[in-house]
Amino acid sequence: MSSRRSAHALSSGAQVATEENRRSDQRLGVGPEVAGHLCENCILPSGMASGSARRGGARLANLLHGYLNSSSTATSASWSQTGIAAREIAPFGARMASNQIVRNRMKSVRSIQKITKAMKMVAASKLRGVQSKTEDSRGLWQPFTALLGDSPGVDAKKKIIVTISSDKGLCGGINSTSVKFSKALMRLTAASGPDKQASYVVIGEKGKAQLQRDSKKNIRMFVTETQKLPINFSLACALADEIMQKVEFDAIHLVYNKFQSVVSFLPTVATILSPETLAAGSEEGKLGELDSYEFEGSETRAAVLQNLSEFQLASVLYNALLENSCSEMGARMSAMDNSAKNASDMLEKLTLSYNRSRQAQITTELIEIISGAAALEASS
């Protein structure tokens, strides 16, 4: 018996609301087709449209009526002032995002947050392994600096700029930093004289992609996918042999990022001279401690300098690859940590928006039920 009364109360309330809605449409001068369009775009059915929803629709009613019955300039201007383009009808409730859209957005943000956290853990695991190898490799090339010296401003006609970058992204600005320093060295070489030449040797996919945009003609050689396997001295020796066989040079500038900590790295330029430049510098006394040594054995001074130059290039290249890899992992850790924090902030905002929208929907439904019961009591 009570369920029949409740059903009768709701149906009576719906009839009263429908009659009131029809009267308001007549007062506003809106035809049934426009009212039906408004109700179709509402969340609620047309028969149970609440008073607040109808008042919201009334704000668009006059504009819709003028649009459907007139095409004058004044009508078009009124539509443009309200932010609705000509020959378009804005759906009712366009200001409020659907709960389903917000839920889908929250799901996407959670998925991205899981990915960024996983990438941060992977980068931290790889960093621990590469960092120990990097620290050990520093003792391999440092004796060459004392023996042969370090002269980044050497006067050489043919210079090779070896830009070391990563094959993958999402690691901050380490690749952009290496490319910027390489371009600066290229400009300095071009400004030093018309007889000076410089070209690029690019290691890494990201550095290649950036330099190809405006310096494609200056790239002599590029090597990618060097990080698929762990970096070792054999890889550095193979790269050094390929560079010395395919490229003629008087001096090589290695541009890489030296690892300092997880959150910082230092752009560094290391200079390696060719055997001919070493011989000329040795005669002029411009090298380091090499002039204080005597050469013994069957090998000539030129052969010794040739071997020293090749071994120095392989050693410095090995250390540069490890330093850059360490810097890449540290920068990726920082970038993924920032991404995870941003995802958390976005989730908080989306959750707040979703709860507010859901609370408003529940409140609207309660108002409709109460209004139906009040209408039934008034009619009886």
SSE diagram, text form:
Blueprint: H1 2-28, H2 32-40, H3 51-69, H4 73-81, H5 99-148, E1 158-164, H6 174-191, E2 197-203, H7 205-211, E3 219-223, H8 233-246, E4 251-261, E5 264-273, H9 275-284, H10 301-379
Parallel strand pairs: 1-2, 1-4, 2-3
Antiparallel strand pairs: 4-5
Helix pairs in contact: 1-3, 1-10, 5-10, 6-7, 8-10, 9-10
What are its keywords?
380 residues, alpha/beta, Pyruvate Kinase, Chain: A, domain 1, 10 helices, 64% helix, transport, ATP_synth_F1_gsu_CS, mitochondrion
The gist of it:
This protein has 380 residues and is α/β, with parallel strands linked by helices.
Task: Provide an overview of this structure.
- The protein has about 375 residues and is an alpha/beta fold.
- The protein contains 10 helices and 5 strands.
- It has a 5-stranded mixed beta sheet, with helices on both faces.
- Strand 4 and strand 5 (about 265-275) form a beta hairpin.
- The relative contact order is 0.13.
- Mean pLDDT is about 75; it is low at about 1-20, about 25-65 and about 70-95.
- Keywords: ATP synthesis, CF(1), Hydrogen ion transport, Ion transport, Membrane, Mitochondrion, Mitochondrion inner membrane, Transit peptide, Transport.
- It is found in: Membrane; Mitochondrion inner membrane.
